[in-house]
Design brief:
Layout lengths: L13 H5 L1 H9 L1 H7 L16 E5 L5 E5 L10 H16 L10 H5 L9 E3 L3 E2 L2 E7 L5 H13 L4 E2 L2 E2 L7 E5 L4 H10 L6 H4 L2 E5 L4 H11 L4 E5 L1 H5 L6 H18 L2 E7 L19 H4 L3 E7 L7 E9 L9 E8 L4 E10 L12 H13 L4 H8 L4 H14 L1 H6 L1
Parallel strand pairs: 5-11, 5-12, 8-9, 8-10, 10-11
Antiparallel strand pairs: 1-2, 3-4, 6-7, 12-13, 13-14, 14-15
């Protein structure tokens, strides 16, 4: 198969559409003007194919083309040739595919402005639906608030990676906190916030008629990012209903397609999921919550280490290599200003033995011991602590009993 890229594809009628700028130039007189001022112009120079053809577009999309006679290719008849080509290209464009169809030729010849762009690093695209989840004490809302503030302040990086907003405006939908809660947070960050930029940080409180409010706002004020805090408050239906979740996302899909922005939903992780390896399946509810979004993050506390350290894991990113998704971004949380700073460290998942990825085995033992006392069997416990075998759970419990962890950690 020949993989060479070419802008010339005479066997596809889509190529005719690519010539529409030429037709526009002819009708406006630009081409004729250009020819009259340059006696040395060739047909190739002004974008006219060297061979004129006509074709029939069949219902299947195939094109049958036949050579036709054209005026003699010389300087004296160039204006006539131009007119001939313009009329032929217009005729062919009327037989092209419907607007909702994209062909491989179209995608292979897209300009740079039509390719996927990123809002943050190689992770967060400029347009799409994303999710960040984690336990309730990790600081997910604070991290997303920080991202919004970096956007409106026109900063060029976030957590050490490039930040490229266009509008420098963010919309935060707070269904959990009220205006008093936000006032307290912003007061703690007042030395880090420039009030002239803060006017582009916009907030909607409550969860009523969110889609309508967002749509109305975006029609007047374009944004780079919408943060929804949190998913379950805005969704307000059965969190385990796969079809309902997908219908919910479809409403927001229409918004991002119309306005070209990114939406991040803040969500929660399942019970005891923080003790297993990072995985997009750790979020609470149906798998559709993380299946539909193109980008998913998990925020975790440091296990058994510094209580101010967090780990941001990329658990889903369709255009990101698998090795990058197995390394966390280590963050340090400053409680005095409620902001995160990257430490520059990255941590990897131990794929073959996930239990060894956790340095705090006493904490894992604490969970396993409690579940055992509640009457759960080893098979149930292994899922809760993220182990792959019942034997590993048995060894963990035995180790804890021998080292006295039951008295010091589990009671």
């Amino acid at each position: 198969m020949n993989n060479s890229k070419s802008n010339e594809n005479p066997m596809k009628q889509d190529n005719y559409n690519a010539q529409e700028p030429f037709v526009d130039q002819f009708e406006s007189g630009e081409i004729l003007k250009d020819v009259s001022h340059s006696e040395n112009k060739t047909l190739r120079d002004i974008g006219i194919p060297e061979t004129a053809v006509t074709g029939t577009v069949h219902a299947s999309g195939a094109v049958t083309e036949n050579p036709v006679e054209r005026p003699e290719d010389n300087r004296s008849s160039m204006a006539e040739i131009i007119k001939f080509e313009a009329e032929e290209l217009k005729r062919r464009s009327q037989n092209s595919y419907p607007d909702y169809i994209k062909t491989g030729f179209d995608l292979m010849n897209r300009g740079p402005s039509q390719r996927q762009e990123y809002l943050w690093g190689p992770y967060l695209s400029r347009k799409g639906i994303s999710v960040i989840y984690g336990s309730s004490d990790t600081g997910k809302s604070k991290l997303m608030l920080q991202l919004c503030m970096e956007i409106v302040h026109k900063n060029e990086t976030f957590l050490g990676f490039d930040l490229k907003p266009k509008h420098h405006r963010a919309l935060f939908i707070s269904a959990e906190d009220n205006d008093d809660d936000f006032e307290r947070v912003l007061e703690m960050q007042k030395d880090l916030i420039d009030q002239k930029y803060a006017q582009n940080f916009c907030i909607i409180f409550g969860s009523d008629n969110i889609e309508e409010k967002v749509q109305s706002f975006l029609e007047q004020f374009p944004v780079d990012l919408i943060v929804v805090d949190c998913f379950t408050d805005v969704y307000a239906k059965d969190i385990n209903d796969n079809s309902a979740v997908r219908r919910f996302y479809a409403d927001f899909d229409k918004i991002i397609n119309a306005h070209g922005c990114q939406i991040i939903f803040i969500h929660h992780s399942g019970k005891n999921k923080e003790f297993g390896p990072p995985n997009k399946g750790n979020s609470v509810g149906t798998q559709a919550i993380t299946a539909k979004p193109r980008f998913v993050m998990e925020l975790r506390n440091e296990s058994g280490g510094d209580p101010d350290v967090r780990h941001l894991w990329i658990t889903k990113a369709n255009n990101l290599g698998s090795s990058e998704k197995r390394k966390s971004i280590e963050l340090k949380f400053d409680e005095t200003v409620l902001r995160f700073t990257p430490t520059g460290k990255r941590h990897s998942i131990v794929e073959d033995e996930p239990e060894k990825a956790h340095s705090n085995r006493p904490e894992l033992y604490k969970t396993a011991y409690r579940l055992k006392e509640e009457g759960q069997n080893l098979d149930q416990i292994k899922g809760a602590v993220g182990f792959r075998s019942k034997g590993s759970v048995s060894k963990l419990i035995q180790e804890g009993d021998n080292k006295g962890w039951s008295k010091n950690e589990a009671e």
